[in-house]
């Protein structure tokens, strides 16, 4: 999720053509050297409250997730070294999700729960050629944790628990062009980060008689891609009060072909290839900001996020439906140096019948997600 | 400041507003009336599993699972003749356990699970909807006195029906009709071939087709007299069941060792099968028995060879590809008592090709009758024969569970190799539901296979 700044959150998550200060470290490093202030700090968090309802095909049995609230956060600090160069560092969490179904739900053999957490640390440098055009780049250090639980079809609550962590690298580059007082363009590319889990811990709970075949403690390798993003954005200051922004995010999910697990022991029995066959998606976003006075700014936006999943390989581990979202936001500056930013998003996953054919698991899903967020920013 | 409060109020309104709710399926009875459902059939309908009709196994009978689903479309509660013991009515229940074979090797497999039974003499006095009787053939459902204890001695009654018969001389079908069923299932006929098959063609006879047709039609005609609708199911391709496919016919493995070479010399020599081969050659008969290093076909008794005028001790031969050894074949006798090599395997543990042909021919004939009866009476129909052939060839996956006809690991067959696991029963229930929904444009909800237990491992 692109919840990396509470001002941008309120504007349909548009950010690449906005220059909101140090959060440009994430949205567009090219804009950082063009920020208005000498020093800028931001920190904030959101609470993702997601609910999934699933109804089995040909049945009136429904199952719901019991997802704990996940809390992406961000901290940015940036400063201008001179008129042309700015540096900064950001710590943020662009990927992170927890899907928790009941342990004995109907899809337990596919997934009981999965938790993915990734923290990105991104030192960044930005350079402008003139007051209009800036470029920037950041190096990303990504630290990730994954934990998966799924049931096994043996008696006595048999289960596999897979836990792995990884450190990977990537980069974030962007360019920002302020064509006029009113019009700005931005483009940003964040590289794919491949979360390679090596020697993760696998714990199998199986009946005693099977423990010679399926050892309790095992090690596994797996790879999970965090996709590359290429974002194009335009913003337009329509009136002194009203800022409009449009963005198209190209999310390169196409590299997520399958989720493969390789086990150190009993590989012939336990190794698995689980097709995903995702496709790239394009997310159109619009956002608006209205400055009521020096103290208050209101924001609103919306976007449509197409599911990257394949018709044949839709799994309940991450229920990704075609999603329409609207966003709201508000900033309040009690003093000039400080801004308190709140945002609220509501995501509607469109009801659709989906199937994971390798398991012959079929049903209809619907999701609704609420995401309130709060952040503060300081400038000097 | 007013605007701020309004904004918060709006936020709150959105947050409490809605949870996702999928409602794509509305149960409906279509053109059928499921108020009083009775299930007629044999052990499969009764919920027999692991070699016994026992409490928890019975609770997972497909008829019971279907009966529960029918309560969502107007069905009254489905009542089973509850067996109160986990060990069954008659001994023979199996569980997975460790046993030591004649060579001292410990392995995991089905072992007897003995305990206090709920004998047939504990009569059930309440009205039951599940009239499945283990062992029943098509004629038995029509037979008065099939539930009369006095007839047990003569073999004319069945202890399972004795246990719940409403009166001593009532027939199964008469007991069903006494409940004025609005809907019935009839899955009968398996035992008309299975009794022959599980005794290696030695202990039972296949019902003559004409008789089968006559009885089957009488049953169906009786059941529809009150205007009841129903579902018929045919006889699965029983030789695909794990009971017949688990022990390979070439199970005699002679190792490439001094001992193996020595044994080979004896088997193929003058004190082994050389005289047999010479005799067969002299008679112009094609039978030869030869052994070599590696896997070898078992030597078996084949009484059908009497037709060549051979004496009993020469009515033996090696099995050929496609012939089947039964799960009841004692493994220790193969491993330690030279069964299959020096000692021919008795006929009752083997299905010869001729016997398999008899079974297949009867199954096809009976299934034609069942299908025709369904068509003639506008009844729903489940083609389990085709389903089982398909599972045997391709397997089946539901909710991430892989089913095959393999013993124990295939998830479908319970520890007796013929009857179903709870998950297998759930799969079968869904096929019944598909057929009923299609015939009567009903919407009976299907069951989640993964919600049912797998085979229990120690």
Give an overview of the whole structure.
The complex is a heterodimer of chains A (380) and B (458). Chain A has 3 helices and 21 strands. Chain A has helices at residues 6-10, 24-27, 267-270; strands at 39-46, 49-56, 62-64, 73-80, 85-92, 96-100, 113-128, 133-151, 159-178, 183-190, 193-205, 217-226, 228-237, 242-252, 258-263, 272-275, 281-291, 296-305, 323-332, 338-356, 361-379. Chain A has one domain: Porin (Beta Barrel). Chain A is 3% helix and 59% strand. The longest helix of chain A has 5 residues, at 6-10. Chain A has 380 residues and is mainly beta. Chain B has 458 residues and is an alpha/beta fold. Chain B has 2 domains: 37-245 and 354-451, SGNH hydrolase (Rossmann fold), CATH 3.40.50; 252-326, no CATH class. In chain B, 34% of the residues lie in helices and 12% in strands. In chain B, the strands form 6 sheets. Chain B has a 5-stranded parallel β-sheet, with helices on both faces. In chain B, strand 2 and strand 3 (106-112) form a beta hairpin. In chain B, helix 8 packs parallel to helix 13 (353-377).
